[in-house]
Amino acid sequence: MLNFEGLQAHVTLESALKIQQENIRATKMNQRELTKILSKKINLPAKKTRKLIESFGDVISLAVSKGEKVTYSNFGTFYLVNYPSKVINHPIFGKKKRTVMLATNVVKWMPSDSIKDLVNHHLQTENVTTFGAAKTIREAKKKAGIAEYKALDISKAEHSALIEIQKKEKEPAPEEEITEIPIRVIKKDWTDLPITHLDTPVRRTTPFTRALSQVEYIDLSKIQIPSTILCLVPKEIAHRTKVVPIDLKDEILIIGMTDPTDHEALDTIKKLVRKQISPRLISEKDLTQILNRYDMLGIESAQATTKPAETRQIDWKKTTPVSRVINLILKRAVREQATMIHFDTEDDDIVVRFRIGDQLLDKASLSKSLHQKVLAHFKRLVDQSEEKNGVTRQLFSLNVAGVPEEFELIGITAVDGEKIVIKTKNRLKELKKLTEIGFRDRDYQAIIENAPRPGVNLITGQEDVGRAGMFYALADFYRDQNLHVVTLEKSPALAVSGVSQIDMNKIPGFDLNATISTLAAFDCDVLMLDSIPGAEIFNQILTLFAEKIIVISVEAYDSITAITTLLGTGINPAVFAKKLNLILASKEISRLCPHCRELVKIDSKTVRQIRDILADLPADERARLRRLGSHFYQGQGCKKCNGSGHIGNTMMLELLVANEKIRDLIADDFDAEKIRKEALKNHFTTYAQDGIIIALIGEVAISDVLPEIK
């Protein structure tokens, strides 16, 4: 616990407190005003004053984030309160719909008795946070004519008489209405604050805890805001301040925001529009939908469509540049995590549809006259189109919102003309540690112990992005071990600092055989390949790098099939088996939508199935899982997930650690089932086991894991 006893600095909390007292009548004080007044008070430049305030905040934030209490004598204490997860009634639908409130950490500040007295009695005095402040406040109270109240010893008869008087005073008049007001009782010892559950019914004016009684709540789900109104607040300002314009009446701009108490945002909008503003409370869902409309704002201003707004159909004028149309469609597809973009001709329109999950959703409509221009634009984006049997496929890259994204153009020649489909490539965008990918506790410890040993480690999975993520995470792991890492890759997806990466596609006439021979004398500790080499080259690698670490990425379903795939290239099973250390595998699975997931009950048959699968884990691991409980979740579907119940994907992981028995089974007579059984006895975390674990955490639905179990 940090104790600020007698903090000596140019700025003190006493000065800040006195400044606050001098401005008691002010409705608010922002950072700029506080800095200005405090700078004048302590005769210090504003820049240094602001730095001192920020430093004080940084120290408090760092300490509290570590779970420490920060106490400033006679001022108060900053501390952290953990509210565990619980199931509550929905704030709008009540008992008809139950929702899960996730565990949260909340920062609290408990003022000292000196501060409480100062505020409660509107006293103005100095040095209230220094030693002896209680005496100073008592003198100020006495000077102000405020009496000190002390408990006196009274007899039992006097005590009974007082109780009777209090009862009579509390009895309401017959015509008075009795209103129950819930009161949260806080224990005297603030270090053990309870989480109070109020059973008393509370009148709900809005579904938000941060709402103000004087701010009107407005539902925007069925209101179409004109583009001319949205243009009053630029897109960047709306995203930054979380404020959107709703309407303009009598030179008063009506704005929507989820936090009407954000005075800084209100000031920003007022200075921007130079009009009077009237805030309204809106939901997070409505805010997100309106912010999404900004991406189509420039196009909607030029639309000439009579279709209903609910269909979100957009008709583009010929004056709109085709390149801008395409960029906006691709940007929206990436944001909504669409896997395919269809351009289908229907009557006089080109209907743009997104494949999101299992659904094909209409998103926009183009004039059919733009069809040839759209085709020509996409063909200009690709260098060379490869056509085979009437099907054209070609990769191309494009900056979307400043981020490079990869797409695949797929075109077919149909009876009614040429049609195209754009496939979004799920590319790796950032380097993650092995723990961030999902390897935890027991598995991560096994990697630490086995990965640095000389031998062969395999990375496998069916999804390119999953294998690439583990490939670079393992390269980063070896770099942290102060090992010299060299990678041989075809078009690297990421640049890893401290790792020697060789792009084989960019070297004219690249000779892998000669490169392997050269690297053997290059003082290379770890050689990593993002694809399987031929049998001859692989045997050469095993010979030249016998005392080094070799990592190979294999496209296969799981750990066992990765061994089968590698042996199928014609390598020597005995030599390979002798070198095998471990196999890391990943499989993509849909992630639950956090906005609509709810607890779900599972039947006894499924419970037994889960118990049997987890029975292969060590006893200490099963005990740790029991502490997670037995709660599973299911996505109900909402607007944010397009009714699918899922948003994005995550990974189920496998880790197989080889021992002598497993190596013998690979070398002598490869039997997948025997290897699986022996691996479970040693160290083998399967997709099924890892899937159940992340389902218990609430990341995925158990119903999505069960097919993998079968």
Automatic annotation (TrEMBL):
Q: Which residues cross the membrane?
A: none
Keywords for the protein's UniProt record, in alphabetical order: ATP-binding, Nucleotide-binding
GO CC annotations, alphabetized: plasma membrane
Q: Which SMART domains match?
A: BHL
Give the SUPFAM superfamilies listed for this entry.
EspE N-terminal domain-like, IHF-like DNA-binding proteins, P-loop containing nucleoside triphosphate hydrolases
Domain Type II secretion system protein GspE N-terminal spans what residues? 214-294
Give one GO molecular function term.
DNA binding
Q: Which InterPro entries match?
A: Hist_DNA-bd, IHF-like_DNA-bd_dom_sf, P-loop_NTPase, T2SS/T4SS_dom, T2SS_E_N_sf, T2SS_GspE_N
What are the residue boundaries of the Bacterial type II secretion system protein E domain, all occurrences included? Answer: 317-705
Regarding protein family, the annotation reads: Belongs to the GSP E family.
Q: Which PANTHER family match?
A: PROTEIN TRANSPORT PROTEIN HOFB HOMOLOG, TYPE II SECRETION SYSTEM PROTEIN GSPE-RELATED
Protein name (database record): Bacterial type II secretion system protein E domain-containing protein
Q: Which organism is the protein's source? A: Candidatus Berkelbacteria bacterium CG10_big_fil_rev_8_21_14_0_10_43_13
